[in-house]
Amino acid sequence: MLLSSRLLPLCREVSQIVPGGLTRLRQIIAAESADDIKPEEIDAEPAVSVPGILLGEIAAVTQLGQLGFTPEKYTAYGHSQGVLGVECLTELPGDNWADDEKLVNYVAFAFLLGAAASQATFGRMMSVQGVPVELLPIAPGVINSPIRAVYSGDSAELAAVKRAVTAAVDKYNATIDTHERGGEHVDVTFADLGVKAAFHHEHNREAVAQAVEWSEKCGLNAVDAQRLGDYILVDPYEWKVGEHDYLLTLDKALGQITSEQTDAIILDGSTPAKRDDLATPGTELPKLINFDDFAPRVIELPTGERKVQTAFSRLTGLSPIILAGMTPTTVDADIVAAAANAGHWAEMAGGGQYSEEVFNFNNDNLQAQLEPGRSAQFNSMFFDRYMWNLQFGQQRIVSKARAAGSAINGVTISAGIP
């Protein structure tokens, strides 16, 4: 086998780093389908995971090619070590990838790089979710999305990161509690990634040097071992994709992460069956959203008047201008009636309607000023249980007024409803 011959100069030395690693890779290669590959503890070792992931990418791209999705028809993105797949899969693999010298060289390098990382036995990786990356007090090794980052390091480093991030989050949340800033509290989640190495960390420079040395001994001159090794094991990494209508992901979790930074429709191609489904006749892809449909437009009415039309105005039949309910400004009827008569959405502020008598007085005044065919709206505060029960709960004074003929045709529920 071409792969074995590539690794022959170092086969015994490298295979001893993670006993059973080469055997596990042979099992993966020999498997007839993905269902035959069951997860094992050894898979977390870089000596297995790095070449194993590349083998999975080769298999997936081969299948996609058989379904008509050939490499020249799409832009490929590789997450972190996925760069190996992007660089070696510029053309569709042949019937037997193991005879493709270019692919074999990259798989051999992936094994050597993974073995070097396993030999280094350095560190773990910890994800930090929920915190905007600009709030992080220490630069992460990986940025996956605006609210997802990954830190690499030994136990002491990761513990220090956890303390620093927790303190930064507590400080940020305190400024919300003291009304120094608006917004919502930040909730942080830490999780160990279960990887038996710390990718994207300066400590890995020796591992990269080892992989480069091994690559030279194995004659992998066509692979830029230094650049790729630094990119995968040492350099900080930020996951980004370009602007597309559709993105096909070979990893479901990566698809979820990617959805947080793009408007593209993410298609799940994480299994052979799902990839087959995409090429099955009759399969319909999710329809793209044309955001131009939501843009404001200038229209001409039968009267010759020119008005601005939005989705809101199409829904309500009113102008796009809203007079929002705000105590005390719109408690009284005068301003509400004036706005409603001008064709705007006009809300009476529920915060000032603290009793049935007060509401009846203001509502009677409103109804007296509304022109025929005009209606107003009511703004109610859900978080105030007394006011809510008075207006729409147990006493239902607004609902009763509407039933009695008051021209109130809309309710805005504010404060406490996100």
Mean pLDDT level: 91
The SSE order reads HHHHHHEEEHEHHEEHEHEEHEHEHEHHE
Largest sheet properties: 5 strands, mixed
Helix content: 40-55%
Distance linking N and C termini? 61 Å
Radius of gyration: 31 Å
Kindly name the structural category.
Answer: alpha/beta
Number of strand elements: 13
Low-confidence stretches: none
The best one-word shape is elongated
What's the number of helices?
16
β-sheet strand percentage: 5-15%
Strand sequence of the main sheet, in spatial order? Answer: 4-1-3-2-5
Give descriptors for this structure.
418 residues; alpha/beta; five-stranded mixed sheet; four-stranded parallel sheet; 16 helices; 13 strands; 41% helix
What's the short story on this structure?
The chain is of the alpha/beta class and 418 residues long. The chain contains 16 helices and 13 strands.
Description of the molecule:
The protein has 16 helices and 13 strands. With 418 residues, it is α/β, with parallel strands linked by helices. The protein starts with a helix and ends with a strand. The model has no long low-confidence stretch (mean pLDDT 91).
In terms of topology, how is this protein built?
Blueprint: H1 2-7, H2 11-15, H3 21-30, H4 46-66, H5 83-88, H6 101-120, E1 124-129, E2 142-145, E3 148-153, H7 155-177, E4 189-192, H8 205-217, H9 225-234, E5 237-238, E6 246-249, H10 252-258, E7 265-268, H11 272-279, E8 297-300, E9 306-309, H12 311-316, E10 322-323, H13 333-341, E11 345-349, H14 356-369, E12 376-381, H15 385-391, H16 397-403, E13 408-414
Parallel strand pairs: 2-5, 6-7, 10-11, 11-12, 12-13
Antiparallel strand pairs: 1-3, 1-4, 2-3, 8-9
